[in-house]
Amino acid sequence: MTIKFQIRDAIMTDLTQIIAIAAHSSDPWSEAVFQQTLKTDTPFWVAIQDTEVIGFLSLSFCGDVISVDNIAVAPSVRRQGVAKALLQKAINKYHGREFWLEVRQSNVGAVALYQSLGFIQTGLRRQYYQNLLENAILMTKIVK
Asked: Is residue 37 pLDDT above 70, yes or no?
């Protein structure tokens, strides 16, 4: 099922809702990291349903490469197209660029989503996630 929502730039007043969504992820950023990210000019988008933030995506640039730094969706609307739409916006906006991301090895749903968008596994980062000592799969996509 796909739900209706809009994607826009994140603003500081979204912070409380962003942190609440991130708290449901296994390795959430601190409030300070989110604040710092919102103060930069790197892409940080939120998915909005009515007035509620239901997901977010943060990107950064490493030379010509786009790094997917953080993506999360509210548990109540997962698997309804929010993460895919956020990623598709990035792919469309940065056409022709290479994308990198890390994903928990155990997060098979996210891995499947990234694969459906053309990401391929290009490496493994052992014990990347310190809180659970879990490996991260490094995935890459070259948008042509």
From this structure: yes
